[in-house]
Input
Amino acid sequence: MAEEGFVNTISAVEFDQSGQFLATGDVSGRVCVYKAANAPPSSAAGRTRDIRPASKAQTGRTGDTPIYRKYTHFQSHEPEFDYLLSLGIEERINKLKWVTPHAGGQFVLTANDKVIKLWRFGEDKMKKVTSLNFPPNTRGPNVAPNLAPANITQNTLRMPLVQPCETVVSAKKRRDFANGHTYHINSLSLCSDGETFISADELRINMWHLGHSDTCYNVMDLKPPESDGYVEVITCAEFHPTSCNLMMHSNSSGQIRMNDLRQSSQCETNCTREFFEQRNSLSNQMFSEVLPPSAMSDVKFSKCGRYILSRDFLTLKVWDVNMESKPLKTIQVHGRLRTRLRHLYEDDCLDFEKFECAFSHDASHIVTGSYSNMFQIYDRLGRTETCLEASLASPKQPTTFSRTGTAGPGKKSEAGTPVQTIDFSKKVLHCTWHPTKSLVAMAAGDHLFLYDCI
Output
């Protein structure tokens, strides 16, 4: 476990498809990439850049767990100004997604509020000219090429050679996917065909081809004819992990809609399935005009594509793609705040932050963040919970309890923590799960943490 090198708040974190690379984006528009390595660092300077996983029980299980070392970093976005709207565009990285590697390099998509960029980074060999036998004073820029030393003849002259001297990691921008969104981009998702991806803002979902940045296809447009006709907004969108024709999106009304692009390319009018649970009177409270607690902040497919995980402010829900009538399980993450929402909102304690969630590689566990730099790990049916704190302090034995029984001696469930002790200024918003191992990476402020959780 180690802290992130930049002193700016991390706004995105993502493993690549192989788990060899881990990337973070921050509010200053910078992207930092870490690479997995099991060998010990060669210098003290290298050790300060390592991210060492903290084992859950500290039993030495991290022997086969990779240590992530800083590989490269680059400036992805710069602050800009929209002169037509007279608005500034922040450099903050909202989302980043890995692209299938090819041609000997790694590719990653990064997005701020308006522009998506495709970056390639990889190892390039630096070269230098060697095998020269001219004296140093005859190789300057002001020396004429025909003024060779008298002791060097045609037979002794050696032609220069270009030889590799060192390997450096460089990042190069390949394409800009711009002018596709009027509102803030909140989602990026790669299609399983490896050639296309979607991007979503509050009212539009666009489909792009990785090889063509000048045009995009509008899959969904919810903008009403009148400016006051907004009913709902898009909060997240994602492709199915194996079926390139299936796509889902969530909205501020607490619904998940799945569309089959083979049936219709206009997803706002044709919906294959709709996952919706009837809400209680909570949706009629004052928060429905700001950002309702039922608004889904994140939705994710499991790796197998069988399950859907959704996160709103109060709960986590696990859905079966074949049963849209109700979720398999509803887990109360902030259930103790339900009766205190009005008071906390009036005291400026709640911003209804967009907490992310993630499935494990085998869909057996799920993870999400909370306040006080806490994050919770549940099994898929929510029967057990592990509560950990993302902290620079030495990792301690986590609090684990059964939701169907009672907690052990000295252990307290997250739901039993007094509201007065919650630090609303510290929160874990961004998390991602390793594609093949029981590793969870999460961001807390300007620090990045890696835990071996199962």
Notes: The chain has a mean pLDDT of 80. The chain has two helices and 31 strands. The CA atoms of residues 82 and 427 lie 31 Å apart.
